[in-house]
Amino acid sequence: MKKSTSKLIALIISGVIVLGLHAGNASEVDWDAFSKNLVKALQSSNSGLQRSAMQLVIKYGNQVNVNDAVFDVMRVFRYDKDQGVRRLALTTLTNMNNKWAMGFLKRQIQFEGDPVIKKQLIAVTSDSYKPEPFQENLTAADKDFNKLQEEVLQQSKDEALFTYQTDVDDQPLDASQHSYILRFAKGQFPPAQGFWSVAIYDSETQLRVENPLNRYLIDSSMLPDLKLDADGSLTLYIQQETPGADKESNWLPAPSGPFQLLVVLYWPGQEVLDGTWTSPPIQKVK
Predict the structure, then answer these.
(1) Cα gap 59→36, rounded to integer Å
(2) What share of the chain is helix, strand, coil (3-state, %, to 5)?
(3) Where residue 29 falls among pLDDT bands split at 50, 70, 90?
């Protein structure tokens, strides 16, 4: 009997073993089934499993189709604190040959703070790519908040950005002076077909804000753990100190001083593109 060269690759997802067959002959592999298993792994909350799946995507390249998990890998690249994992996610996105992924990577060049990753981003994207300047041209003369929102909204079929540097009263955001809330009404959560996130940065350093929770953003993947208001709205608390144990799940820690907020929608809905939905204003806690 001829000895088989096949190997079983076991992916453990929340205690469930999902098998993908890697045969000695590529024609023997059920690539569709294997791709579906990889998607499940990439969408898993198990970071070790995600890393293994990304390595397999890189190894097998165009043999697999994991486009259903593209936003999950994008999330890993943007928010994981381990730079090695971020580089792995970057290589995975490049190997996916996905239009959403490549558009996303091009736009990350202007935000990337790690010089090694930035160099890799430039290398894997078009040499002719020139990122649009970050929206920093806001002036005190912009008193109308709706006009302000129109200026900072960068409309794209791939990604929409809303940046906040002032509150609803057109006062600079400063957590040493005030506590703030950002409230999304029921039925008015960010309409993203991919995912959405709310991230905070120190205005002076442009870096993430170190805090005891190690929380630098709140995104749509956290919704099951966030608390909704009695009317179904979602209130995020943006301040230095905890808003209290009952509200801490919705707390986005702020620095002791000026800060800016970035709301990002990946694959935004039509209501974002046509301007019928806009991110709500930031309000001081009174």
Answers:
(1) 16
(2) 35, 25, 40
(3) low
Instruction: For residues 189 and 131, give the distance between their C-alpha atoms in angstroms, rounded to a whole number.
Output: 28
CA atoms within 13 A on the CB side of 87: 11
Collapsed DSSP state (helix, strand, coil) of residue 126? coil
The pLDDT of residue 126:
65
Structure tokens that stand for 37 in this block? 């298993």
- Least confident span in 93-102, 154-163, 191-200, 240-249: 154-163
Whether residue 122 has pLDDT greater than 70: yes
Tell whether the model's pLDDT for residue 128 goes beyond 60: no
Distance (Å, whole) CA 42 – CA 150: 35
Alpha helices in the chain (DSSP H): 31-42, 47-60, 70-79, 83-96, 99-108, 115-124, 145-152, 270-273
- pLDDT score recorded for residue 157: 57
- Tokens (6 digits) for 9: 């690759």
Least confident span in 83-92, 124-133, 185-194:
124-133
184 strand-pairing partners: 234
d(CA 252, CA 245): 13
Joined tokens for residue 111? 């935000």
- 190 close to 220: Cβ distance less than 8 angstroms: yes
What integer best gives the mean pLDDT of the chain? 76
* Residue showing tokens 């992924």: 101
Q: Give 274's contacts (C-beta < 8 A, 6+ positions apart).
A: none
Q: Are 226 and 218 in contact, with CB atoms under 8 Å apart?
A: yes
The token duo for 112 is 């990337």
Q: Within a 10 A sphere around the Cβ of 161, how many other Cβ atoms?
A: 19
